[in-house]
């Protein structure tokens, strides 16, 4: 794989990662918006449930009133029969039939309200559970993203610090090496200077007759003197 191909692949990979990051961020914003809208709809559903329950209670109260009215008019009809007033008893019976018909109508309303309230309660409960689960997942994703972002930052700083430490250590070694080379050069120069100084001094001593000759005759004379 050529350098240009690898470079293109790296750039392409970086672009893809950036695009995915933008898409993920956009997805989270969409989820947040949907959650907010769902919460609004849930509140509306709860308001509707409150209205249905109120109508349910009202229908139940009307049914109870019709029941009480039917019982009351049955008592009237019984009294009319006891008095032998057949026509009045029939009129009361007609009233009772009307009350019972109204009661049945109200009972149908009550059954509908009860069924609606039961279904709506369940739907609201399920929606709340789903919404809570979704919110928890979104919060978890956000928290994980924050932790990973922090870990990436720390890791980058750590790698940067290691790189700087390595560079500093290499610079230190170069400085020490140069210092050692310089010290060796100075020592060599000192040794050369000392040698040159010693040769000059020896010549001057010989010229002044201070240092004796080192010829073979002188050496033999010195040896004979030691034996004598």
Describe the 3D structure.
The chain has 228 residues and is an all-alpha fold. It is built from 3 helices and no strands. The protein has one domain: Helix Hairpins. It holds the Pfam family PspA_IM30. Belongs to the PspA/Vipp/IM30 family. InterPro entries: PspA_VIPP1. Keywords: Coiled coil.
Q: Which key terms come to mind for this protein?
A:
228 residues, mainly alpha, Helix Hairpins, 3 helices, 94% helix, rod-shaped, Phage shock protein A (IM30), suppresses sigma54-dependent transcription, PspA_VIPP1, coiled coil
- Percent of residues in β-strands: under 5%
SSE order, one letter for each helix or strand? HHH
The N- to C-terminal Cα distance equals: 94 Å
Into how many domains do the coordinates divide? 1
- Give Rg in angstroms: 56 Å
CATH class descriptor: Mainly Alpha
Morphology call: rod-shaped
Looking at the structure, the CATH topology is Helix Hairpins
Q: How many helical stretches?
A: 3
Helix content: over 70%
The number of distinct β-strands equals 0
User: How would you classify the helix and strand content by structural class?
Assistant: mainly alpha
Unreliable spans? none
Q: Write the CATH architecture name.
A: Orthogonal Bundle
- Most strands sheet: none
**Integer average pLDDT:** 78
């Amino acid at each position: 794989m050529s350098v240009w191909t690898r470079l293109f692949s790296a750039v392409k990979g970086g672009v893809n990662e950036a695009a995915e990051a933008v898409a993920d961020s956009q997805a989270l914003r969409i989820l947040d918006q949907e959650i907010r809208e769902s919460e609004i709809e849930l509140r509306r559903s709860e308001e509707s449930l409150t209205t249905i329950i109120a109508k349910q209670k009202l229908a139940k109260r009307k049914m109870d009133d019709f029941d009480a009215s039917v019982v009351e008019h049955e008592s009237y009809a019984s009294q009319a029969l006891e008095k032998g007033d057949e026509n009045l008893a029939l009129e009361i019976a007609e009233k009772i039939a009307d009350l019972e018909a109204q009661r049945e109508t109200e009972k149908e309303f009550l059954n509908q309200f009860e069924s609606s309230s039961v279904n709506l309660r369940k739907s609201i409960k399920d929606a709340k559970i789903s919404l809570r689960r979704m919110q928890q997942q979104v919060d978890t994703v956000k928290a994980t993203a924050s932790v990973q972002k922090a870990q990436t930052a720390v890791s980058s700083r750590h790698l940067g610090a290691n790189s700087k430490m390595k560079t500093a250590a290499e610079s230190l070694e170069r400085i020490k090496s140069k210092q050692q080379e310089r010290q060796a050069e100075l020592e060599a120069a000192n040794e050369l200077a000392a040698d040159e100084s010693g040769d000059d001094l020896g010549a001057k001593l010989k010229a002044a007759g201070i240092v004796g000759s080192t010829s073979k005759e002188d050496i033999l004379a010195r040896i004979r003197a030691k034996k004598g």
